[in-house]
Amino acid sequence: MHFTGVIPADAPDPRMQHEELVKQMPIPVIGLVAQSSVQSTSLAVNSATDSAGFSAMSVSVSATLWRNPTDKTDPVNLEILDEHTRRAIEEVPPWPRPAWLIEQVESMRYPALWEAVQTHWHRDESEVTDVGALLTQHANYILMNQFQKELGLDEQHGERRAPMPERRITRPTTVVIDGRIVDGVEVAPDPLIYAVGATLPSGGVVTAVFPRQHLPFITAEFATHDQPKRDS
């Protein structure tokens, strides 16, 4: 996350805007099944509209990872930070900051499952809305944003020596959602990420992408995520 300029101490939490938009999601949002090592932190929303209203919407769930959830002060929980990030956390500006911003800056000390689970809804189905296409899109998105160095990506200009694949090889698997085993697909083994997805009974698609290094601490099962309720 990046913030620029001076943010007033009374600035509203931008997550509230996303929570309001989530209320318009036509299908339930999916997240990781409840587990002590994962603490959900925020929802992010992307949507498209036309003259008939929303034509597409996706909701991403981010979380903090605790390697030792029974003792959150254990240094094993800390992320390995580069010098730039460490300075951004430790250098306190001479002006007051909103509580939500302080909270988000402090969370950078710990590993993040950034936009790890995404729920996708499209009013009209097409070849780009099936689970394989959406899983490829999600996997490439995580790789491009979290593994720039490993991919030989120019972080400043967003360029890569070779283009990301438009379609990744997927294979059948099973996925647990709300305690039920359903058919799904996973991306063929990748040294950096684990990616899995499934079509939902609600008519949407769930995709999940995790850094492979975090897998030993995660139960990769899913459940309906607690989300803001639409006003009656």
**Strand ordering within the main sheet:** 2-3-4-10-9-8-7
* Total of helices: 5
Q: What percentage of amino acids are in beta strands?
A: 25-35%
Helices and strands: which structural class? alpha+beta
Uncertain stretches of 5 or more adjacent residues: none
Question: Termini separation (Å)?
Answer: 33 Å
From N to C, what is the helix and strand string? Answer: HEEEHHEHHEEEEEEE
Radius of gyration: 18 Å
Largest sheet: 7 strands, antiparallel
Shape type: globular
Report the mean per-residue pLDDT as an integer.
Answer: 88
Fraction in helix: 10-25%
DSSP E strands, number: 11
Task: Outline the structure in words.
- The longest helix has 16 residues, at 131-146.
- The protein is built from five helices and eleven strands, in the order αβββααβααβββββββ.
- With 232 residues, the chain is of the alpha+beta class.
Give a quick rundown of the structure.
This protein has 232 residues and is α+β, with helices and mostly antiparallel strands.
Structure characteristics:
single chain; 232 residues; alpha+beta; seven-stranded antiparallel beta sheet; two-stranded antiparallel ribbon; 5 helices; 20% helix; globular
Tell me the layout of helices and strands.
Elements: H1 14-22, E1 30-32, E2 38-50, E3 53-65, H2 83-90, H3 99-107, E4 112-122, H4 131-146, H5 148-151, E5 153-154, E6 159-160, E7 170-177, E8 180-187, E9 193-199, E10 205-211, E11 222-224
Antiparallel strand pairs: 1-11, 2-3, 3-4, 4-10, 5-6, 7-8, 8-9, 9-10
